[in-house]
Amino acid sequence: MMPLSYTRRDVYVYGSYLGASLATSLTLTETHPHQRMGIRGCIAFNGIYDWTMFLPHHPINKLPRTRSRDITEDILTQSLDPTFLGFKQQAGMLFEKPGSLFDPFASPCLFFHTPGIHVPQSFTDQVQDIPASKLPVEDITLELLLAAKPSKKHYLTFPPTESTLKIPELLLIHSGPPPLAPSLQRRLQRRKKEYRRNGFRTQAEELAGLMRHSIHQYELKDRKRWDEDLQCLKTWGEEAMRRVQVYDVGPHHEVPELPGDGNQFVEAWLEDRLSRWKR
After folding, report:
1. Which residues contact 183 (CB under 8 A, 6 or more apart)?
2. pLDDT tens digits, residue range 19-56?
3. Of the spans 36-40, 108-112, 148-152, 180-184, which averages the highest pLDDT?
4. Among 140, 152, 174, 188, which is most exposed with the fewest C-beta within 10 angstroms?
5. Any idea what DSSP says for residue 60?
6. Alpha carbons 110 and 158: distance in angstroms, whole number
7. C-alpha distances out from residue 21 to 110, 111, 178, Å
8. DSSP 196
9. Contacts of 100 (CB under 8 A, 6+ apart)
10. What sign does the dihedral 229-235-237-242 (CA atoms) show?
11. What are the extents of the domains in the chain?
12. Which of 239, 211, 214 is nearest to 224 (CA)?
């Protein structure tokens, strides 16, 4: 498969649903731009990029302590894509143990930041964080230390500084949740603060934000010193936004396939990148 001449051969990976997280992790760990034949980018549809967000004690699943708590619970139970809800319910079947959710190759978001939560004993455990400073010295046991409040989530340098890896071209496609019932929609519109729900959209936006942060914070700071193309950009964020894109194909579809407008967007995205290398 290796090209015989000095021409480049570009590989683009595609994955959907369970395959999307695997395709993304493969691309993140195998994109070496200097290689004549290699992975250059990835297209992922409705992937789960952080499985730890399904755990009950993850911050995204904590309901706000307000009078509108009931409406938040209604949103959680009525607005999930059935396929997404199925992944949440089957996590215990898909993974051998809860700790497996914290593997970056299963949850590629964790290449870019620490989890910020404990590994629970089971997939349904509601872990209660205890500030370590409040533990009486005489009462400290291994169990209490494990239950102590975990360190705050912080960014990781990825790709590693001395690695030849580079953040790839990535297109994250997602469907939206089914529309809310009219009565629930009206109640939601009255709320001043928008509630961030876990779903395919949230998963895609979370990974995209982390990848763009890595490009902006670690890669471009060094490259801008010598790369004339980057010096022409109005903001460093333009390159990050160009390289990592998110596309919404609308409400969920009964058939778990990329809809027509999604296919058209993918074709245009691929043509743009393939033609760039031919120039």
Report:
1. none
2. 999 999 999 999 999 898 999 999 999 999 999 999 99
3. 108-112
4. 152
5. G
6. 10
7. 12, 12, 22
8. -
9. 106
10. negative
11. 38-271
12. 239
